[in-house]
Amino acid sequence: MRRAIGIAVLGAGTVGTEVLRLLAEQGDELAARVGAPLELRGVAVRRPDRVRDLPVDPALFTKDAAALVIRPDVDVVVELVGGVELTRGWLLSALAAGKSVVTANKALLAEAAAALQDAAAGSGAHLYYEASVGAAIPLLRPLRESLAGDRVHRVLGIVNGTTNYILSRMDATGASFDDALEEATALGYAEADPTGDVEGFDAAYKAAILASLAFHTTVTGDQVHREGITEVTAADIASARATGATIKLLCVCERGEEGISVRVHPAMVPRAHPLAGVGDAFNAVFVEAESAGSLMFYGRGAGGAPTASAVLGDLVTVARAVAEGRPGTAESRHAELPVLPMADTITRYHVSLDVADRPGVLAAVAAAFSQRDVSIRTVRQEGLGGDASLVLVTHAARDGDLAATVEDLRHLDAVRSVRSVLRVEGGEL
Ligand code: NDP
Ligand code: HSE
User: Fold this and answer.
1) End-to-end alpha-carbon separation of the chain, Å?
2) Could you tell me which of 129, 137, 216, 247 has the fewest CB atoms within 10 Å of its CB?
3) Looking at residue 158, what DSSP letter applies?
C-alpha cells in the first residue's frame, strides 16, 4: 500500500450522499483497487450543522469549500454541488494547486471546459467528468479514449432522464405533464430547478460535452440549439401515435461538410427505432463512426446511485494515477470546427394541419412547401365534415426553409390551424 490519497467531497445531496455512503462501505475494496487507501478529508455543504444519515464523522462537514479544495492533505476534489459561479472558482483554484478533479457538473463543463482543461494541463492534474453525461453509462471515456483513433460522424440520443420519464409517462399512461414531472422530481432525477430539465438546458449542456469530445472542438452550451418539452402538447403525442411514432427529447451532434450541428429538441421517432423503446429515466446514445460503424450506449441516466457509480469509477482512475505519480493527459481540441446555425442544419418535419375541405386547398398547401424548396414525402388527408385533417411529412431540407414554410402555412386562408409541428429523426415515418 502506498500513502493515503486525500479526498475532498463538495456536496452531499442526491449524488454526494451515495458517493459518501459507497466510499465508507466499500473503502477497503476501493483501496485494494487503487493500491492506496482513500481518506476523506472533508465534505463541503451549504448547511454543515444539518443532521445527516451518513456514515461520515460530523466533524468533517464544513461550509468552506474554497479552503477545503486547496488544503495540503487533499489530492482529489470530487465536486457534486452543481451550478457554475461558485464551482468554477473552487475547481480552477484546486486544479491550479495541482489537485485532481472529478465532477458531475455538466453546466460548468458546458461553459468552462476549456479553462478547466487548461488549468489541469498547467499543473499536471487530472480532470474527469464521466457522470456529467448519461450518469451510469460509460460514454465519455469511450469517446475520449476508445474512439480517439476513429472519425465520429454523428452522436444521437436521449440524454435527459427527467424529460424521458415525463414523455414516456405521457405516451404510455396519458399522465399529465405536471404529474409526471412531480414523480420524476421525487425519484431524484430532476435538477434542483427542473426548468433546466424541461426547457432542455440540461440536455444542451450534455450535447456540448458530447460534441466537444466527438469532434475535437470546443463547443459551449450557448452554441447548442435548444428546445425543451414544455411546448409538447397532447395533440403532438396523439399525432405521433397516429403516425406510428413516439416523441423523444433528442440530442443530435452531426458533422457535415460545412461544420458541425449541435442541437436538442423534441422529435418524432418511429416506434421501430431502438430509441423509441427507451422508457423511464433511461438514457441511450448512438455513436456513428467511420471505422467502428454504429455503437449504442444504454443505461440509467439519472439518480443518486447510478451517478455515484460513474463518479467512483473516475475517482478510482484518478487515485490510481495520483498514487503512481502519473500526470493527467491533455484533451484534444485540435479540429475547432465551426458550429452551424440551426437554420442551415438539414432536418425533416412532420406537420399536422386543420384545413378547409374544399377544392384547391391541397394545391395551396403544396405550393407553400414548393415555394420554399421543400419537398413533401407523404401526405395523409382525413375528412372531418366541412374541414379536413392534413398530415405532411417532408424530405430533408434546410431547417430555416422548413420553419419559414410553417410560418407561410399559418397565414394561408385555407389553413384553420397548425396543430402540430415536429422534426423527425431516426428513420422514415
Ligand atoms: P443536490 O441539489 O441534491 O445537492 C447539492 C449539494 O450541494 C447539497 O449537499 C448542498 O448542501 C451542497 N451545496 C449547495 N450550495 C453549496 C455551497 N455554496 N457550498 C457548499 N455546498 C453547497 O444536487 P445533486 O446531487 O442532484 O447534483 C449534484 C451534481 O451532480 C450537479 O452538478 C448535477 O447536475 C449533477 N448530476 C446529478 C444527477 C442526478 O441524477 N441528480 C445525475 C448526473 C449529474 P446541503 O446538503 O447543505 O443543501
Ligand atoms: N436531471 C438530469 C436528468 C440528471 O434528468 O437527466 C442526470 O444528469
Assistant:
1) 59
2) 216
3) E
Question: Which of 78, 226, 206 lies closest to 143 in space, CA to CA?
Answer: 206
Contact 14, 6 (CB under 8 A): no
> Exposed (0-12), middle (13-18) or buried (19+): which is 190, by Cβ within 10 Å?
buried
Q: Is residue 247 part of a domain?
A: yes
Ligand nearest to the CA of 130: 1
Per-residue confidence band for 239, with pLDDT thresholds at 50, 70 and 90: confident
Task: Indicate if ligand 1 lies below 6 Å from the C-beta of 80.
Answer: yes
Q: What is the CATH number of the domain that holds 49?
A: 3.40.50.720
| Cα(161) to centroid(ligand 2), Å | 5
Looking at the structure, tell me whether residues 292 and 316 fall in a common domain: no
* Binding site membership of 190 for ligand 2 (Cβ less than 6 Å): yes
Kindly give the distance from the C-alpha atom of residue 181 to the centroid of ligand 2, in angstroms, as a whole number.
12
Flag whether 335 is in a domain: no
355, 367: one domain:
yes
296 and 309 together in one domain? no
- Residue whose CA lies nearest to ligand 2 atom number 7: 302
- Could you give the CA distance from residue 416 to residue 179 in angstroms, rounded to a whole number? 31
Q: What is the pLDDT of residues 54-88, one digit of tens each?
A: 999 999 999 999 999 999 999 999 999 999 999 99
265 with 127, same domain? no
Atom of ligand 2 nearest to the CA of 191: 1
Q: Does ligand 1 have an atom closer than 6 angstroms to the CB of 86?
A: yes
Q: Which of 423, 84, 82 is nearest to 264 (CA)?
A: 423
260 within some domain:
yes
Mutation test of ligand 1: which of 54, 68, 80, 106 has the most ligand atoms closer than 8 Å to its C-beta?
80
| Pocket flag, ligand 1, residue 284 (CB < 6 Å) | no
- 148 and 268 assigned to the same domain: yes
- 45 ligand 1 Cβ < 6 A: yes
Predicted confidence (pLDDT) per residue in 190-225, tens digit: 888 899 999 999 999 999 999 999 999 999 999 999
Query: Which residues are tagged catalytic?
Result: 206
What's the CA-to-centroid distance between 46 and ligand 1, angstroms? 10
Q: Give the domain extent around 361.
A: 343-424
23/42 Cα distance (integer angstroms): 13
pTM of the model: 0.96
Q: How is residue 331 annotated by DSSP?
A: P
From the CA of 132, give the closest atom in ligand 2. Answer: 8
pLDDT tens figures, 145-178: 999 999 999 999 999 999 999 999 999 988 888 8
Flag whether 224 is in a domain.
Answer: yes
